[in-house]
Amino acid sequence: MNPFTLLTSRVVPLPIDNIDTDQIIPARFLKTISKEGLDRNLFCDWRYHEDGSEQPDFILNKPEAKGAQILLAGDNFGCGSSREHAPWALTQFGFRAILSSSFADIFRGNALKNSLLPVVIPEDVKQELFALRENDANLSITIDLETQTLSLPDGRKVEFPVDPFAKYCLLNGVDELGYLLKHEREIAAWEARQPWALNTLGA
Amino acid sequence: MKSSPQAFEGLRQRGLKVRQPSRTIATTDHSIPTTSRSLPILDPIAATQVEKLESNCREFGIPCFGFHSEDQGIVHVMGPELGLTQPGMTVVCGDSHTATHGAFGALAFGIGTSQVEHVLATQCLLQQPSQSFEVRVDGVLKPGVTAKDIILALISRIGIGGGTGCVLEYRGSAISALSMEERMTICNMSIEGGARAGLIAPDDTTYEYIHGRRYAPQGADWDAAVARWRALPTDEGATYDKSILIDADALEPMITYGTNPGMGISISQPVPTPDSGKDAIERDSIRKALDYMALEGGKPLLGHPVNVVFIGSCTNSRISDLRQAAAVLNGRKVSPSVRTMVVPGSQEVKRQAEAEGLHEIFRAAGAEWREAGCSMCIAMNGDQLTPGQYCVSTSNRNFEGRQGKGGRTFLASPLTAAATAIQGTVADVRSIL
Ligand code: SF4
After folding, report:
1. B156 neighbors B265 (Cβ within 8 angstroms)
2. What is the CATH classification number for the domain harbouring A111?
3. Which of B4, B100, B271, B308 fits B76 for a cystine, CB–CB 3.0-4.6 Å?
4. Residue A140: domain span
5. Least CB-CB distance to A23: which of B112, B114, B399?
């Protein structure tokens, strides 16, 4: 996993609440058996016309979105289906962080496992950022995971919460599976105390 | 397992085994077609995905209820049916509607691909503690009002982010009175309210349902299991982080008008206008939804023409759902302008329905009777809407394009769906009961 420490980037705004994972990556692209090539279909139904040509008004198709690594979105981002293809598509496109006033649980978990940082900011800060971005297409902000702060262009700092374990994993590029595997003995002990467990190989 | 190939690949890359194949099962649901099983899968990408699952299961020693298995079905239908879901278990699956299994007093939630890999390898998941959210539903449902209407009403009240970070516990007299299948319908859509999971305390209804099923404990093990399960329910007087009360007597059939499951109304109400939103963003999202749905705020949905009626999905494709739809369709004809699809949730539901002659009722009414699968709940197996079509669907998601690009979904109960199929327009089932 790529470590995440400090990120300074332009911001891509999507001022829509409840963006669900079916919008992020529609189900018809989930039949793939690998993780590659999902970026092309990120926000597919908003991004392309019926005939496959680009929708020029959609923010990801504008020049200022090129290379931007921070997405600023409305409330409850990532709701709906549990598909991890959503963070895969977002990171393949180049995003490393998403700012919103709240995130859907499964999406937040999936994002963290893919080095994509969900940053929860207060509603008024979110509104202010949308307004700032409205006036400045090159609005750039800095996210410091170590100190859990966001630096606004005028120098103000906004703190954001991160679960300490997720933070440790992100900063060090440690993945959760490696951590879990170290607890083999505890796992075996717990399993031994559940003699009645289901047996799907029997019956 | 729509995302499992990447999880197995992850195991292979690290040289890991599946820790407990005996506590694991696999099935094919999302991408398989619901046309005749004797035909090969036409979509080459879906066919590869199904084959891949079957070969991964062979390699890692996991029992797989595959494409040709007689137990195959949507995992949230066939799991409980086989007695695989039991009180007190922790159940996870790479699918957000895993909350369904909470109906048995199991802690059940959907996980992403990385977590599928973690569980396969270690039987463990790292979790943050959840908050508890009491959903108390007291009273008696009126005729024509079902479990689906309870859950649509809840989500329309708390919103699709209302349960974020929480496990919902459904309780109260209206919940205790429900059958296991109805309880599954409710728990199924917990995720649509943003919750991590939803559960219902096990009781005699639960034990009766499980007893005698293939993977249920037998003999002395059964008695020991029931004794353990009886200790699970929440203590009297327990407190919750959040609570909401729903009056079952006051509920009407519910239907969604918009592009998320929280945009629901009683069937007799008009579609809201954008002005009714509480702030600029909500007003905007209602405007955007009405735009996508090509609906006008302030007008009723009743009487609105539809092109397709879909009765199926892990929310409403169990035998009791099909019986309800059949009761409405019996001796009637579906409107010639409506394509009506009835899709059982599993092979077992299909066999049972055919043994009861329900398929004859559906066919005589002019509806399609199809093979088990997710079908038109998710446009990834050949069944889908065409742009601009309206569908009354018993599934759980009405997001833009969920049932096919440009498709427009109204979520409702099997009763409402069947009544709509007959009338050809959004109908109030109470007018024909
Ligand atoms: S029926 Fe729909 S919601 Fe349920 S598992 Fe299948 S695709 Fe998912």
Report:
1. yes
2. 3.20.19.10
3. B100
4. 6-172
5. B399
Contact residues, chain A, for B96 at CB < 8 Å: 80-82, 106
A4-55 residue pLDDT tens = 999 999 999 999 999 999 999 998 888 777 778 899 999 999 999 989 999 9
Q: How far is the CA of B374 from the centre of ligand 1 (A)?
A: 5
**Which of B22, B45, B397 comes nearest A200 by C-beta?**
B22
A157-159 β-sheet, strand order = A117-120, A97-100, A70-73, A6-14, A140-144, A149-151, A157-159
Residue type, B68: H
A198: closest chain B residue by CA? B23
Helix (H) or strand (E) holding A70: strand A70-73
Burial of A111: CB neighbours in 10 Å, binned 0-12, 13-18, 19+: buried
Domains and CATH numbers, chain B: 4-122 (3.30.499.10), 131-250 (3.40.1060.10), 254-431 (3.30.499.10)
* Structural domains of chain A, count: 1
Residue A178 falls inside a structural domain: no
Block means of pLDDT (10 residues each) for chain B, length 433 residues? 75 93 87 69 77 91 86 92 96 94 97 92 92 98 98 97 96 98 98 96 98 96 97 95 98 98 97 92 92 97 98 98 98 97 96 98 97 88 92 97 95 98 98 88
Task: Supply the pTM of this predicted model.
Answer: 0.89
